[in-house]
Known about the structure:
By secondary structure, this protein is mainly beta.
Amino acid sequence: MFSQASRAVAxxxxxxxxxxxxxxxxxxxxxxxxxxxxxxxxxxxxEYGGVPVAEVLEKAGAPLGKELKGPNMALGVLAxxxxxxxxxxxxxxxxxxxxxxxxxxxxxxxxKPLDIREGPLRIVVPGDKRHARWIRGVIGFEVVxxx
Length: 147
């Protein structure tokens, strides 16, 4: 049985997608999990565990794969933190047909839950030289269409 906290909304997915989602930590834990090894902001090699953001966006109905063409190339994903910090990604950055890089919605670091400074959820973007897009405490994704 999950605690009340595990059923609380941990991540909201909204915007220009057919299925708006309010995901609990239990919902997020049910996705296919992945672990990636990256260099953190202090130059240390660490492992983050979590869910590929593409899987969350796919569940919301974002046009990935063969649907990501034409007008859908103008879609972005605005990731938000509770302190107002926001980062805009192109939807193509999450699609395995466009990139081999897996952007992760992480909830674990070196096998342990993220601490209060990083989590409970964090975006991890392998290959970024600066970690400005590695949003700590991420609470939502909004799919937006650039006009």
